[in-house]
Structure formats: C-alpha cells, structure tokens
C-alpha cells in the first residue's frame, strides 16, 4: 500500500516537473543494451548539452520519476521519502536554472501496461529501440506481444521527433513502419541508415594494459567517419555507439564531434569489461544480465580474443524466457561447441539445457562442469584455471554471476569499484 502511494505521488510530481522545465526527453527501451546505449548517448551529449541520464538502473515506475527529480531512492525510509518529495516540490515551486535541458531515460518493462505508464510520465522527443528478444516474454504470452509493448515508445514520438531503431534485429526493425517520426536505423547491415563497417579488435597481448579496444568506421549519408573506442570490447558497445551517433545527428551534432566524444566512452560495470584474474588469467566480466542474443554475442567475442591457454565460458541461467527457455538454452550449448570453447562451467537448474545442447553438438561431457550456485563455481575455478586462461562470465541478474568474478579476480578488494551489485541492497540476495 505504501509503495503504491509513493509511486502515485512520484508520478504526479515528475509530470509537473517535466511540464514546467520542458527538457528534451530521450527514451530508450529494448530487451538488451539499454544501459550501454544510455551511457553512450550521455557520453556523446554531455559536453554540448546540460544532460542527465537515468540514475543507476532506475528504469521503472519509481526509478524513472526519481531520475526526473534527480535523486536516489529512499528505500524503506519514510523520512527519506519526505526529503524526496520536498526536493520535487522545491523544483516545482521555485525555478532551478541548472535543471538539465536533456534527460535520457531508460524505459524498462516487465508486464503489459508498463510502457504506457512510463510514457504517461514523460513522452520522448527521441525514442530508441535497441533490441527485442525473449526476456520477459513469459509475462506477455509471445515475443510479438512483447515487441508491441516495446514499440509503444516508438509510436509515441511525434512527427517532429526521431525514432532510432536497431535495423539488425528483426523485432525492432518491424517498428520502423510504425513510426510517425523521422527514422534513423542503425546496425551492421548495409541497409541501415547509419552503420558500422571495417570493425577491428586489438589485443596485442594477454596483458590488460595492451588492450587497444575496437575501432570502426561509421557510414552515414555516404560519408565515413573513423571511431575509436579505447578499452572496451564487444558487439554491444558498437551498437550503443551507433545509437548514440544517431542521437547526436538528430540533435544537430556533426560526425567529427560525435567521434571525438565517443573516445571517452566507458563500459558500465558487468558489461564486457576486462578484469585481471588470479594466476595470470583474463576475465571478461559480462555479468550484468543475459538473454540469448547477448549470450551468443559474448561467446563469439570470447572466440576472437587471442589466448595462451584455454577459453572457458562460465554461464548462468537465462531467466524470464518462459516457453522459449529450454530451446534457447540448448541453442547456446550448440554455439559453445561450434565456437570451439574449451571448458564450460554452468550455474543453475535451467542451464542443464546448455549442457545438453553442447553434448548433442559434439562437446565431451568431461569438459562440462555444473553447479547450483555461483559461489561454488567460483571456488571450483580457483583451483582449475591456469596461466593464460581467458574466462567469460555471464548470466541473468538473478544468478549473481559477479560472485564468480569476485572469487577469481586478482584484486578482490576492488570489487565495489569494478563489479555490479556490490551495494547493501544486494548483500543478502
């Protein structure tokens, strides 16, 4: 009951603040890539515009208004919530000359009706649809119904705004025809309006200091602009950079400005970050979350990076896939074998289907190890990894795969600085 009251008050206050200050709203939704895209868009815009982006992972009915107000959640503190409401009222009753002119909002959905609720608080001038996958499909009945819910963001943008849509993903691509706004599609496909080509990853050695990152060319309106993203890897960051470049163009920035800004891009915690491991190993920390497409993308990158020894995939269950769960996990296993991964360490009940898929494809059973909890997998790896091993760690948020990384990272005292979910609210989960 108290939560409903707080949620209602936050909605009203946030709507009034948006109506008063009229910031340019950029809304981002998708099954994966929202946070990486948010960070990339913020990186491109922050030096040119007074910009605010979603705080932490605040992308729901409570988090989104808190971003608009510009404050953290008060949790279970009644006094804390009074302070939040006071700050909101102060913004409404007086005028803050420093209030941001651009606000970037993640719009996450779990159930039918969620997007409509969020759009009722803040309607975007620019809408970004990153990717439509299977996550949360169990709550919608089908992938198509999930797509329709996410596409409400695109439909909400009026004809003077911009819809920025991932062309490479079939689910998001369907929304192009549903947009009233000007569309900038992005991706690797040649049919995308704004695309990346000549992608090159640089790994000169297995020392993390030698990681050069990735560079590529952005092709837009027939012109090519070179982009360097230092110290990041993965296809996900390329898509995020492309989406942010499209936003920059929609806001009248030139491609040189955009390219220069992207050099400052830093991957959020738990998203394809390189971390030094014990025994001279390298960890690819992709523990923030997982769904089928991002899982396959991460495994593919694992294959591309040179290593002196074994490639090890440590994978947890992918949750909230509903009726697609068994088949999607099995497909991951088949890809593990096809890509030549040397060892497979699994966590959780559902991941038995990854094992089944890998064995059916040809992987030997003695190359696969299974654990109930992430901490058990971490302890096991401590004793099994050897110098030069390259270790990918990934799984859904609820699997707490960051516990694996914490067990095998060279500097565990830096966990609060480097890993996801290290604050108090996650301690007992």
Question: What can you see in these coordinates?
Answer:
The structure is a single chain. By secondary structure, the protein is α/β, with parallel strands linked by helices. It folds into two domains: 2-262, UDP-N-acetylmuramoyl-L-alanine:D-glutamate ligase; 273-421, Alpha-Beta Complex (Protein-Tyrosine Phosphatase, Chain A). The chain is built from 16 helices and 15 strands. The protein has helices at residues 2-21, 34-45, 63-69, 78-93, 114-119, 137-140, 143-156, 170-173, 235-250, 255-262, 292-304, 325-338, 352-361, 374-384, 402-408, 415-418, and strands at residues 24-29, 51-53, 102-106, 126-129, 162-166, 182-187, 194-203, 211-220, 223-229, 273-277, 281-286, 311-316, 343-347, 368-371, 390-394. The chain has a nine-stranded mixed β-sheet with strand order 2-3-1-4-5-6-7-8-9, with helices on both faces. Helix 2 (34-45) packs across helix 10 and helix 12 packs across helix 13. It is globular. The two termini are 23 Å apart. The mean pLDDT is 93. Keywords: ATP-binding, Ligase, Nucleotide-binding. It comes from Candidatus Falkowbacteria bacterium GW2011_GWE1_38_31. Residues 28-68, 93-247 form the Mur ligase central domain. This is UDP-N-acetylmuramoyl-tripeptide-D-alanyl-D-alanine ligase. InterPro entries: Mur-like_cat_sf, Mur_ligase_C, Mur_ligase_C_dom_sf, Mur_ligase_cen, MurCDEF_CellWall_CoF430Synth.
CATH architecture of the largest domain: 3-Layer(aba) Sandwich
- Separate helix tally: 16
Number of strands: 15
Whole-number radius of gyration? 22 Å
Pick out the low-confidence regions.
none
Q: Kindly name the structural category.
A: alpha/beta
Instruction: Using the alpha-carbon principal axes, give the shape.
Output: globular
